[in-house]
Each structure stands twice: as structure tokens, then as C-alpha cells.
């Protein structure tokens, strides 16, 4: 400690103050441009914020890789699905004719769509990879309607920042920011590999989000809410995943 | 404590020894590692251990490896680890399933990755300006001949005792190993890690395409990590053999022990 001079003290003090100020300014800017994820608190908040902010800056408009038809995984893979509730079984018995997707929140025209109504929109398809955080993956053709079209139909308000989406199991819900919600590859998928979407893969309706890991592509979608803040949803961490210990943003 | 060692002697080659060290002090201590090297070393150590533990936990959820773009329980693996899994669907041959640790493991893995990448970048950039790279890591031209090289390897194999100069400067094998770890293994492990990220490869598809696919990236990430673990084990063994206390002291306080203190 003998070498601790006044000059060193001043320089160190100045550097520390500048870093603290810089961090404060960076946090303000990040908040302003929507670069802070809802699960930014806690000990892993720094890494999570750096990942989300940098990937959001790099990938706002980038497209997930698409594959050729010959690369579609054979045999088609389906992960384990949780036990399906009574409401699902009732709708399944009726051939999903009464399946509804309701949309509310910050929209000018709240609405409710049957599968037939969704299928009346021009259908699109993408051959993309579904990647699980565990490490396995498969490629499939996903057929559906881009989420952006439905959001346009219900006329989302300009202050909308997130879309919260729910499975028929109310404990299974997620949310995404507008960059992902309006992304051309974010689908409400009702078909797979030229056929109906199998129940094992999330049929009759799955939110397909190829730029994030599989757990963000929630199966059995029944409800969307458009919001400007995630604070009022669950514990305010953005979705059920952070409440179970998993990151809200799953682009990595 | 007996200090058998594999370190080869640099006794005749004082060209690389800093001038302060060439007249090896007998009673005082002198600076060995700069503060930047020491801080980077220990942050990297902490992060690497965090990455290793969390990486193992993540692998346990699917201890099967593939080549190409895709792979799952229905496709034949390239190889699988003979361990139980933390997911029931994986056919492991074990009758039980381990608890799921992926949530915090993934949070920790990426946080540690950020810290190690940012400190590592600072270290690499500054090593160009401070002369650390040139003085301490790049081998001498004279050491790069096959003869010098085989002498170095031979003296390692004969378990030769290190010279005093050894405490002040890295030998050619150390230099090449550190350069390989810093400029080959670390960049590779970062690259193969990022090549698994669906969002990152949407912006930079070539990063995964040249590796042969996302599952190839995962398999390569595993092997590069194994290489880093191998480095860690040999590194710790070498530090132990060369004198654990003096080498630890040099990396913690920055002072190298004098010959008298080391007896």
C-alpha cells in the first residue's frame, strides 16, 4: 500500500465516478429504447440485460434461417406434453371447432377468432428449426398466419410494447416484445409439414417464434393481451418462465 | 516440500527474462505479474468454473451429441455420454431422472460468459499495448527451431527441476500453450457457443453454416470445452509441481518469491 499516491487516489476516484455515471446513463438509454428485459433484477440481471440488449440491437429485423424441404426432420419429433386439462379435451372431442383465440388489452377492436377465421387469412409457411434449451432440435414446415396480421386486425394502439400470450392451461403463459411480435416469421401456426398441427406439437394453435428457443413457442394458444407494461402480469417478471427459474428472453 | 517439476530450464536463455529478473535477486521480491494479468487471471478462473459447472448441468438435460443441423431422441446420435439425464424422455438406460437445473445454469452460463469475454477482451487489447504479449507470450525466434523445441520437450519428459529464471519468465511450451488457449480455444468456444443461439445466427447465419449446422456447433462446443478443461488440469498440475505457494503468491500479489524464500 506504500505506493498509494495522491495521484493514484484521484485517478481511481475519477475513474470510479465516471464508470458509475456511465453505467447510470447506459441504464437510462437502455430503458428508453426497450433494451431491458423484465427479469433484469437479481444476481443474473446483468448478463440477462447484456444478452437481450445486444441481441435486440443486432437482430431486430434479421430472419431466422430457413431450410429446404429435404431438411425437414424425419421422423417428425414431438416433445413430451404436459397433461391436458378438461377444457382442452372437450374442445378436442369437438374437433376444435369451438377453439377460440381472444385478443384484448391495448387494442382498438378487441376480438375473438375461431380456427376457421384464422385460416381465412392468407396462410404462410416457413421451414425453420425448433431448438430446445435442453439441446435437441428438429426442422419442420410451420403453416399459419403471421401474428402481425392479427395484431393489425385488432388495431393495436401505438403505446403497445409487449404481447402476452396464454395457453389453454392458464399457468402456461409467455410474452414477447414488439420486435418479435411484428416479426414476419412470428406465426400463429395451425399446420405442420403440409397437414394439421398435431396435438403433440402444439395443435390446434401454437405461437411459433423461430428466433427464440422452443419454450417461447407456447402450445395451445387461446388468448393474447396487448400491453405497455409487464408489471401487472404474474410476478411482473414477464412470463411464467422466469417464475420457474428460466430466462424471459430465449434468443440464446 | 519436494518440488519435482516438468518445467524445462531456460537458464541459458536469459534473453526473454526481464532485465530486473536477469540478475535474480536473492533476498528481495520483485514484480512478476502485472495487476491486469492477475485480475484477468482470477476473473477468468471464477468465470471458467461457473461456465464449467453450469455447462455440465445443461448437458445433463440431453447427454447426446449429433452432427449436422438437427438431432433429437428419434435420430441416431454421434455419441452419447453414459450418464443419467435430467429429462425423462431421453433414453439413457438409467431408471431414474436427475433434477432439472437448467434455469439457473443457463442464467449463470451466459452471465459468466459475458464477464469472461469482456475482461478477456480488455486483457487481449491491453496486452498489445503494454508489451505483455510481446515480452511474456510470444516465443523467441530462437526457441521456435525444432532443436530448441525438442530440447524443451525432452527436459519436460525428464522431469527436470526448473531454473531460477523459470520463476520469472514462461518457457517456450508455456508460451505456445497460453497463446493457443487465448487465441484459439477461447475464440472457438465463444464462436461455437454463439452458433447455437437462434437469434445470433439469424443475424450472422454464416457463423453456424460453416460449422456444418447447429448440432455440429453444439458438439464442437463440447469438445473445445473438454480441451479447456484439459488445459486447466495440466495448468494446475504444473503450478503444483513448480511450487504451488510461490506461483500462487506471484499470481495473487504480483511478487515472485526469491530463491532464498523458495527453499
What does this structure look like?
- The complex is a heterodimer of chains A (252) and B (263).
- With 252 residues, chain A is an alpha+beta fold.
- Chain A has seven helices and ten strands.
- Chain A has helices at residues 6-32, 45-59, 86-93, 115-120, 147-153, 178-181, 240-243, and strands spanning 100-105, 111-114, 124-131, 137-146, 162-167, 173-177, 187-192, 195-196, 206-208, 221-227.
- In chain A, the strands form two sheets. Chain A has a five-stranded mixed sheet with strand order 2-1-10-5-6. In chain A, strands 3, 4, 7, 8 and 9 form a five-stranded antiparallel sheet that branches.
- The mean pLDDT of chain A is 93.
- Chain B has a single domain, classed as Fumarate Reductase Cytochrome B subunit (Up-down Bundle).
- Chain B has helices spanning 19-22, 35-60, 102-130, 132-137, 146-157, 172-194, 198-203, 206-209, 214-253, 259-262, and strands at 30-31, 64-65, 79-80, 255-256.
- In chain B, the strands form two sheets. A two-stranded antiparallel sheet of chain B has the order 1-4. A two-stranded antiparallel sheet of chain B has the order 2-3.
- In chain B, helix 2 runs antiparallel to helix 3, helix 2 packs antiparallel against helix 9 (214-253) and helix 6 packs across helix 9.
- Chain B is elongated, with a radius of gyration of 22 Å.
- Residues 1-27 of chain B have low confidence and may be disordered.
Amino acid at each position: 500500500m506504500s505506493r498509494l499516491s495522491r495521484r493514484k487516489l484521484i485517478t481511481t476516484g475519477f475513474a470510479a465516478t465516471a464508470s458509475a455515471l456511465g453505467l447510470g446513463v447506459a441504464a437510462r438509454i437502455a430503458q428508453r429504447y426497450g433494451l431491458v428485459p423484465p427479469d433484469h433484477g437479481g444476481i443474473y440481471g446483468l448478463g440477462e440485460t447484456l444478452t437481450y440488449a445486444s441481441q435486440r440491437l443486432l437482430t431486430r429485423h434479421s430472419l431466422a434461417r430457413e431450410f429446404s424441404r429435404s431438411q425437414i426432420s424425419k421422423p417428425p419429433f414431438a416433445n413430451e406434453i404436459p397433461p391436458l386439462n378438461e377444457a382442452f379435451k372437450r374442445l378436442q372431442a369437438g374437433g376444435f371447432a369451438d377453439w377460440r383465440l381472444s385478443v384484448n388489452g391495448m387494442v382498438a377492436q378487441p376480438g375473438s377468432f375461431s380456427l376457421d377465421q384464422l385460416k381465412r387469412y392468407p396462410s404462410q409457411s416457413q421451414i425453420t428449426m425448433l431448438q430446445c434449451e435442453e439441446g435437441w432440435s428438429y426442422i419442420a414446415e410451420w403453416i399459419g398466419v403471421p401474428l402481425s396480421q392479427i395484431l393489425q386486425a385488432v388495431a393495436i394502439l401505438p403505446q403497445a410494447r409487449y404481447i402476452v400470450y396464454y395457453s389453454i392451461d392458464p399457468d402456461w403463459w409467455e410474452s414477447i416484445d414488439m420486435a418479435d411480435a411484428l416479426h414476419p416469421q412470428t406465426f400463429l401456426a395451425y399446420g405442420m409439414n403440409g397437414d394439421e398441427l398435431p396435438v403433440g406439437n402444439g395443435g390446434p394453435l401454437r405461437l411459433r417464434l423461430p428466433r427464440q428457443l422452443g419454450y417461447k413457442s407456447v402450445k395451445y394458444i387461446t388468448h393474447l393481451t396487448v400491453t405497455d407494461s409487464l408489471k401487472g402480469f404474474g410476478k411482473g417478471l414477464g412470463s411464467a418462465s422466469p417464475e420457474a427459474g428460466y430466462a424471459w428472453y430465449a434468443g440464446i | 516440500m519436494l518440488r519435482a517439476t516438468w518445467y524445462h530450464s531456460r537458464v541459458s536463455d536469459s534473453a526473454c527474462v526481464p532485465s530486473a529478473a536477469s540478475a535474480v535477486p536473492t533476498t528481495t521480491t520483485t514484480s512478476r505479474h502485472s495487476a491486469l494479468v492477475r485480475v484477468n487471471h482470477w476473473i477468468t478462473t471464477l468465470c471458467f468454473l461457473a461456465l464449467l459447472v453450469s455447462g455440465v448441468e445443461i448437458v445433463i438435460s440431453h447427454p447426446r451429441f449429433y452432427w449436422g443441423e438437427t438431432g433429437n431422441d428419434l435420430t441416431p446420435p454421434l455419441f452419447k455420454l453414459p450418464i443419467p439425464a435430467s429429462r425423462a424422455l431421453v433414453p439413457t438406460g438409467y431408471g431414474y431422472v436427475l433434477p432439472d437445473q437448467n434455469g439457473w445454469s443457463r442464467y449463470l452460463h451466459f452471465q459468466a460468459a459475458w464477464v469472461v469475454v469482456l475482461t478477456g477482451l480488455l486483457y487481449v487489447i491491453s496486452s498489445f499495448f503494454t508489451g505483455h504479449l510481446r515480452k511474456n507470450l510470444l516465443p523467441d525466434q530462437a526457441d521456435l527451431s525444432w532443436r530448441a523445441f525438442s530440447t524443451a520437450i525432452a527436459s519436460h519428459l525428464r522431469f527436470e527441476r526448473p531454473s531460477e529464471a523459470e520463476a520469472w519468465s514462461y518457457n517456450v511450451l508455456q508460451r505456445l500453450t497460453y497463446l493457443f488457449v487465448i487465441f484459439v480455444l477461447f475464440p472457438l468456444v465463444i464462436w461455437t457457443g454463439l452458433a447455437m443461439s437462434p437469434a445470433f445466427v439469424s443475424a450472422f447465419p454464416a457463423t453456424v453454416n460453416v460449422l456444418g449446422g447447429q448440432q455440429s456447433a453444439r458438439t464442437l462446443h463440447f469438445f473445445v470445452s473438454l480441451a479447456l478443461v484439459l488445459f486447466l488440469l495440466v495448468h494446475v498440475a504444473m503450478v503444483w509441481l513448480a511450487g504451488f505457494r510461490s506461483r500462487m503468491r506471484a499470481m495473487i500479489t504480483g511478487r515472485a518469491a526469491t530463491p532464498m524464500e523458495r527453499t
